[in-house]
Design a protein that fits this description.
CATH class: Alpha Beta
Number of domains: 1
Mean pLDDT: 93
Structural class: alpha+beta
Helix content: 40-55%
CATH superfamily: RelE-like
Distance between the termini: 43 Å
Largest sheet: 5 strands, mixed
Low-confidence stretches: none
Strand order of the largest sheet: 1-5-4-3-2
Number of helices: 4
Radius of gyration: 14 Å
Shape: globular
Order of helices and strands: EHHEHEEEH
CATH topology: YaeB-like fold
């Protein structure tokens, strides 16, 4: 069985660090951080945990910036979403899960072109 390795893009890392800093003083950020960490553990056991997003709906920005061909969504509390992609790792014995973004509902709608 392949080992699952989790990586974050710079955008996702920025949100993660923000949540870590704010969590001790804010219940909302603490809730989001704990949910994110829980979902990461779930992804380590089953990288197909999230809901797949149709290939024709993958934002062009994600395609060009990261070269992704698949995208999954995981719902987090407070209407936040975690977006990730799955690919083969450099060594043949690992699966790479890249967390592309952690976004609130408003940003999610903007990324996918949904109206408010």
């Amino acid at each position: 069985m392949k080992r699952v390795v989790i990586r974050l893009t710079p955008e996702a890392e920025e949100v993660y660090q923000f949540l870590k800093i704010k969590a001790p003083d804010s219940k909302q950020e603490e809730t989001l951080l704990n949910a994110f960490l829980q979902k990461v553990e779930l992804l380590k056991r089953n990288f197909q945990y999230g809901q797949p997003i149709a290939k024709n709906l993958i934002p062009p920005d994600y395609r060009t910036r990261y070269g992704i061909t698949n995208l999954f969504r995981v719902e987090l509390p407070l209407y936040w979403r975690m977006l990730y992609t799955v690919m083969d790792g450099n060594s043949g014995d690992e699966t790479l899960v890249i967390v592309v973004d952690l976004v609130n509902h408003r940003k999610y709608n903007k990324i996918f072109g949904y109206k408010n």
